[in-house]
Amino acid sequence: MRTTVNMEQKVLVRMRSDLCEWLIHDDGLPLSEGLGSIEEAARAARETFKDDSEFEAAVLLEGEAALMMSITVPAKPTRQLLDAIPFLVEEKIAGNVDDCFIALGQRQDDRLAVVVLASQKVKDTLDAFASEGLAVSFLGVDAQIFQDPHSLRLVLESDQVQFIHPSGEGVSIRADLAEKVLVEELADQNSDIECFDFCESKPLLSTTLAASPIQFREFSAREGTIEPSLLRMWLTRPAPLAVNLRQGKFSYRSTSVALTSLFKRISLILGLLLGSQLLSSLAQALYLDHQATQLERDAQELYLSIYPQDIAPKDMVRRWRSRLAGPGNANQPMALELVEKVSSKIGQSGLTLQNLNYNVARGDVSMQLVGKTSEQVVRLSESLGSTGLESEVGTISQEDNEVRATLRVRNAF
Q1: How far is 20 from 13, CA to CA, in rounded Å?
Q2: In what order do the strands lie in the sheet with 389-399?
Q3: Could you list the mean pLDDT of each consecutive 10-residue stretch along the chain, which spans 413 residues?
Q4: Which pLDDT belongs to residue 372?
Q5: pLDDT of the residue at 354
Q6: Which of 144, 305, 330, 410 lies at a CB distance of 3.0 to 4.6 Å from 242, suitable for a disulfide?
Q7: Collapsing DSSP states into helix, strand and coil, what is residue 85?
Q8: 366 and 357 Cβ atoms separated by less than 8 Å
Q9: Which residues neighbour 153 within 8 Å (Cβ) at sequence distance 6 or greater?
Q10: pLDDT for residue 92
Q11: What is the pLDDT of residue 330?
Q12: Is residue 159 within 8 Å of residue 63, measured between CB atoms?
């Protein structure tokens, strides 16, 4: 959770009633400041950077719009703890807890800092900035910019007074009501108190503070010991304890992160598709290689069964052509065509070829086949007819559990 100014947050905004105070910077260098509407702040950002793209903004809400407090929780965080937090803060809020958004801050021992404010307030603020092209990546409360783990801090402005405890508890009140409340609030304090005075003239509380026995360390914008505005001070000093309200249902995801995530998902899907295609092609290649090896082995076995005197034959294509062509080459194409058409059908029929003879005079191939039933021979003859061949079944004999048959095949035309 980011709680300090990010150099990508080019626009710093502090809400002040119906107006907003803005500071536009580039890598920490202030470029433009003003007070007006959100639309004017967005226009100033576009004019400053000469760009119509969306800018990241860090926005501070008024302290009086939020309840800043700390609650006691078990030492070990659990899922049940998150479910119990609304009940722990319910007794301290005036309205319905269901209408509130609870943001979680820093935890120290059994104390957890929380910020409670109306859910509709958060939604309306984010929508207003989004409509002007300002993406709010940090949404906090102005008083928490001054939170320090070792001292109570007091912030004086012409229209309001805020103080924030080390635990995260804080109060924001109108300046004209602050004197009485502040005296009561600070009466029991025994820790150091730091006072940040942004008033243009001496504040009403100066007399009260001077008369108080409490020791103050005072910093004044008039005297130049601090930056002239809260936004300038926020730009130059970290605020590690400030709670970012962009969490839970209001979590922030930048456009670049969303696009990166989208590209990663697309790349993953494409990678999976490409990988599956490569695996499929590899499997097909392995299968075809296996088939080619098996066919080569079958061709060699067939050749040796017909011509057993030829030892360790090589280059089966050349040897078959030589055998089928006989002494001349005139009938070689016809013989090869017949053998190519017949070989695949024999492999599918379940029959075993024991002998093959090409008769040049008749232009046919005579084959001796062995199978289990005579129906295998008949089916083979019929299937050869569908390929444009004429087949004639010769003698069929039954020997033991085998059927031996002669089949003569030639081109139909």
Answers
A1: 6
A2: 352-359, 364-371, 402-411, 389-399
A3: 62 91 91 94 90 83 91 74 83 86 88 92 94 92 91 88 88 81 70 85 68 77 91 90 92 64 70 83 84 75 69 66 54 65 78 79 81 86 82 83 86 67
A4: 87
A5: 80
A6: 144
A7: helix
A8: yes
A9: 146, 147, 163, 164, 193, 194, 195, 196
A10: 84
A11: 45
A12: no
DSSP state of 20: E
242, 140 Cβ separation under 8 angstroms = yes
- What type of residue is 303? Y
DSSP string across 349-389: HT-EEEEEEEETTTTEEEEEEEES-HHHHHHHHHHHHTTTE
CA distance 62 to 21: 11
Contact 147, 242 (CB under 8 A): yes
Predicted pLDDT at 77: 62
| Size of the chain, expressed as the number of residues it contains | 413
Structure tokens at 371: 């199978």
The pLDDT of residue 119 is: 94
Measure the CA–CA gap between 133 and 126, rounded to whole angstroms.
11
Cα–Cα distance, 278 to 8 (Å, whole number): 42
Which pairs count as long-range contacts for 188-193, CB under 8 Å and 24+ apart, including other chains? Answer: 189/152, 189/214, 191/150, 191/151, 191/152, 191/166, 192/150, 192/151, 192/152, 192/217, 193/151, 193/152, 193/153, 193/154, 193/217
The C-alpha atoms of residue 38 and residue 29 are separated, in whole angstroms, by: 21
* Separation CA 255–CA 56 (nearest Å): 10
Burial state string for 165-176 with b = 16 or more CB within 10 A and e = fewer than 16: bbbbbbbbbebe
Longest dimension (CA), the chain: 135
Return the structure tokens found at 112. 């957890």
Residue 259 burial by CB count (10 A; 0-12/13-18/19+): exposed, middle or buried? exposed
- Enclosing H/E stretch for 104: strand 100-108
Q: Give the separation between CA 293 and CA 342, rounded to whole angstroms.
A: 20
